[in-house]
Amino acid sequence: NEKYSIAIDGPAGAGKSTIAKEVAKRLCIEFVDTGAMYRALTYKILKLSIDPNDYLGIIEILTNTKIDFRNQSIYLDNVNVDKEIRENYVSQNVSYIASIKEVREKMVQLQQQMAKSKSIIMDGRDIGSVVLPNADYKFFVTASVKERALRRYNELVNSGETNISLSKIESDIIKRDNIDSNREIAPLKKVEDAYCIDTTDKTIEECVNMIVSIVLGR
Ligand code: C5P
């Protein structure tokens, strides 16, 4: 049983994390949601009322911040922030923070460390391109922007947010994808050796089965 790694990249709301979590369960390997790490840092910055454009302020926070996972939960300075990082105002600001070079360097280093000693499935934007360029399996998971907006909207409604509209969620997603795809460092893109899965008309189960069968069929 040798160690292997699976990279899952794609735009916001395509279902990456949901799928990756399930694949991890089926294959009995660890799942790392790298977006949660950028979200945790963003949450801290906003909570401290630091302007997302205050570069020096952000760098200082970055050096004094501990982010880690324990049993699939994310901890910010030893406090569980699973819930807080999913809030809409975090989503609206995270792409600015994630475009900063020093931020990415620190996160990528942590992510590579996590993948060093064990089999892992990691989801994000730059996993197949930068974090794990030698991953054994690479997937690019996407869906139509309408479908992705609808999924995020339902997620937010289910978590109790009331003051949101579907069209605002859609424009936020388009904006976030634009920033993520056009940033200078490690932009979101499909790498050549990634297998593309369009989840628009597929169930979670179908996508999970596709990935598991590709991995087990090697
Ligand atoms: O995956 P999720 O939507 O939670 O990611 C939140 C944000 O974190 C993304 O929009 C992107 O700006 C950033 N991110 C990134 N690189 C990753 C994962 C997430 O830049 N590997």
Automatic annotation (TrEMBL):
It is an enzyme of class 2 (transferase). One of its GO terms (molecular function) is dCMP kinase activity. The keyword Nucleotide-binding applies. GO terms for cellular component: cytosol. Keywords: ATP-binding, Coiled coil, Cytoplasm, Kinase, Nucleotide-binding, Transferase. InterPro entries: Cytidylate_kin (IPR003136), Cytidylate_kinase_dom (IPR011994), P-loop_NTPase (IPR027417). It holds the Pfam family Cytidylate_kin. Residues 6-214 form the Cytidylate kinase domain. It catalyses: dCMP + ATP = dCDP + ADP; CMP + ATP = CDP + ADP. It comes from the Bacteria. The keyword Transferase applies. GO terms for biological process: nucleobase-containing small molecule interconversion; pyrimidine nucleotide metabolic process. CDD domains: CMPK (cd02020). Belongs to the cytidylate kinase family. Type 1 subfamily. This is Cytidylate kinase. It comes from Wansuia hejianensis. The lineage of its organism: Bacteria, Bacillati, Bacillota, Clostridia, Lachnospirales. The gene is cmk.
